[in-house]
Design goal:
single chain, alpha/beta, Aminopeptidase, 9-stranded mixed beta sheet, two-stranded antiparallel ribbon, globular
Length: 317
């Protein structure tokens, strides 16, 4: 009987360990709410590059990475540069890949954390808080960092990159892209998230992809997700959005799939670069669903045995 109890005990422990290892991390709405609400708070005064507000945002992101055990890629989390004699810095977290070979290939998951700061007063408010643009994208990247840090499920190495000076002309992403190109890293893909705080209207997909026709990214993400999560928005091409966010400098430097996902469709959010871009206008249930929908597809991309996401020009080779 004692021997049987020991066997049952071992089986129970094994089952519990197996359950813990296989349990998926689910991102809750309150988690993204906390991140976006802080970054878009009046205290940070719109996170303009070179201000005290963006310094507070950077410290917040750094502490989040530290608490997760996400390491800095450089000596510190900050990738420093200057913008018109003002100090600026991207904030970068690094998770080394678990596969001895694939860890030498990199996936960048990014969003810009700066905004435009103080603007012309409207109804007594002069702070352009930048909740949708782009605290929502930052919340998405940070939530993905949490998932991969907790599950340790990335065969390739991941750089979680939060860019400064996007609003100054993509200066932070340009600086980092040039730095990483000089280091000759093997960049597989760059996935950028921009203005994802409210859902698309009457679309049969979750987010649109900029530069849709340049790569098979949308096709592969839909395949990985088992449903249509990435689609084509004609206005994205009309407004040349592929060239207007932080994916573009990486595309120019590396000539690999570097694209942006967004849910801003020009009809569903009327506060772009205005004081009304506040956290209470965000749909955090949508954001949690968005993150939890995209994570499985991103995970499969990160862990694909070969580079399955490709430029369209290379697909027939």
């Amino acid at each position: 009987m004692k021997h049987l109890k020991n066997i049952l005990g071992i089986c129970l422990i094994t089952l519990l360990v197996f359950s813990c290892k296989t349990k998926e991390i689910v991102i809750e709405a309150q988690e993204v709410d906390d991140i976006v609400t802080y970054l878009a708070s009046d205290e940070l005064e719109g996170r303009d590059t070179g201000t005290e507000g963006i310094e507070k945002a950077a410290v917040y992101i750094e502490n989040y990475f530290k608490d997760l055990g996400v390491k800095p890629y450089f000596d510190t989390y900050r990738d420093s540069f200057t913008v018109k004699d003002k100090n600026a810095f991207n904030v970068i977290g690094y998770l080394e890949g678990t596969d001895p070979d694939l860890k030498n290939e990199f996936v960048i998951i990014g969003a810009h954390y700066d905004h435009i700061g103080m603007i012309k007063e409207e109804n007594g408010d002069a702070i352009a808080n930048g909740a949708n643009d782009n605290a929502a994208g930052v919340g998405t990247v940070m939530a993905m960092a949490k998932y991969f840090a907790k599950t340790k499920s990335n065969k390739r190495s991941i750089l979680f990159t939060l860019f400064s000076a996007e609003e100054k002309g993509l200066l932070g992403s340009k600086y980092l892209a040039e730095t990483l190109k000089a280091k000759n890293i093997d960049l597989y893909i760059m996935l950028n998230f921009e203005m994802v705080g409210v859902p698309l209207v009457d679309k049969d997909y979750t987010a649109y992809v900029t530069g849709f026709d340049k790569t098979n990214l949308a096709e592969k993400m839909n395949e990985y997700a088992g449903k249509k999560i990435a689609g084509f928005l004609p206005k994205a091409g009309e407004y040349r959005l592929f060239m207007r966010s932080d994916n573009y400098p990486f595309f120019k430097e590396f000539n690999v799939p570097c694209q942006t996902f967004s849910t801003f469709d020009f009809t569903n959010f009327q506060h772009y670069h205005k004081v009304g871009d506040e956290s209470e206008k965000m749909d955090f249930n949508h954001m949690a669903t968005f993150v939890n929908t995209f994570i499985p597809a991103v995970k499969k991309a990160v862990n694909a045995p070969t580079k399955e996401i490709k430029m369209k020009s290379l697909l027939d080779e």
